[in-house]
Backbone:
């Protein structure tokens, strides 16, 4: 299900010298990806404007500059795909503008005829297509992309943010949990992955937690699991997005406290990891503090013993 409705971007102005919003969006998007945008040289068929994007590739032989001709086609309002008639003479246009590559920037999808035509060019010029799905996946991947998305898709983003709540600003830095296998940030842009707990039961039935870690589902989970086998431990796990649900979080913390009261124990490493995990998830279930609460906190922090110093 697509999150962004490209119809939020108005249709291109027919004629006139005004900048079209879809082209401004293309500039901001490509700038986000690291391209440098030069002035657009010409108008293509159907009024779509061409831009030139410069990519600087650094390699062992120094810097290579690649000039991309960017063709913007905004057909979301009709829903039609971009077809070969919309993109005539691609190779001539690329060469006439002194470029080495072609970028199709589309608010719908390329037709199969156009996809074939572009694929056929790839031995002569470099090509890449950003269609609505690819654009969306880049925008929703991180904070900078979300910032651009909010500017051009305010309604879609209000709905999306409601379904993908952002953490409350509790600590000075954004919460972060990195996969213990591949290092991926499991909390950005939205919580993902699992927390895994390895434990053994003593003869008296008491639980001893040996290791706690968090990781991506699938391969990372399997690889980390292999390193724990043969130690006589059994594993349990929870989905991190589930633990970030306020009521589940409260329940999960209660269960853990009850287990401590019942005499279960944690290794020093497992206990440190448990605290780190709880503090990292906490902003997802908390609200932003008010201004007066921030002032009160500053006052409390100056009193060494207050709130146990908050030194966990
Ligand atoms: Zn991973």
Residues:
């Amino acid at each position: 299900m697509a999150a962004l409705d490209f119809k939020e971007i108005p249709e291109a102005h027919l004629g006139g010298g005004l900048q079209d919003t879809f082209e401004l969006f293309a500039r901001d998007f490509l700038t986000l990806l690291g391209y440098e945008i030069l002035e657009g040289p010409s108008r293509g068929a159907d009024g779509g404007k061409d831009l030139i994007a410069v990519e600087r590739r650094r390699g062992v032989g120094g810097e290579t500059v690649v000039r991309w001709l960017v063709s913007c086609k905004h057909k979301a309002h009709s829903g039609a795909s971009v077809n070969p008639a919309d993109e005539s003479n691609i190779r001539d246009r690329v060469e006439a503008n002194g470029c080495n590559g072609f970028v199709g920037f589309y608010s719908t999808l390329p037709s199969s005829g156009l996809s074939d035509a572009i694929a056929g060019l790839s031995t002569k010029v470099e090509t890449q297509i950003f269609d609505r799905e690819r654009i969306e996946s880049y925008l929703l991947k991180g904070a900078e992309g979300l910032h651009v998305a909010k500017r051009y898709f305010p309604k879609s983003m209000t709905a999306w943010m409601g379904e993908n709540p952002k953490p409350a600003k509790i600590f000075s830095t954004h919460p972060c949990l990195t996969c213990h296998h591949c290092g991926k940030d499991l909390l950005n842009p939205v919580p993902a992955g699992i927390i895994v707990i390895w434990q053994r039961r003593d003869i008296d039935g008491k639980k001893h937690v040996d290791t706690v870690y968090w990781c991506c589902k699938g391969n990372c989970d399997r690889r980390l699991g292999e390193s724990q086998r043969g130690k006589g431990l059994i594993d349990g796990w929870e989905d991190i997005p589930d633990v970030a649900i306020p009521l589940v979080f409260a329940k999960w913390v209660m269960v853990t406290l009850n287990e401590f009261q019942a005499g279960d124990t944690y290794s020093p490493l497992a206990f440190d990891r448990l605290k780190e995990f709880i503090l990292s998830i906490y902003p997802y279930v908390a609200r932003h503090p008010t201004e007066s609460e921030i002032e009160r906190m500053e006052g409390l922090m100056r009193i060494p013993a207050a709130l146990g110093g908050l030194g966990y």
User: Anything to note?
Assistant: Residues 41 and 241 are 47 Å apart (CA to CA).
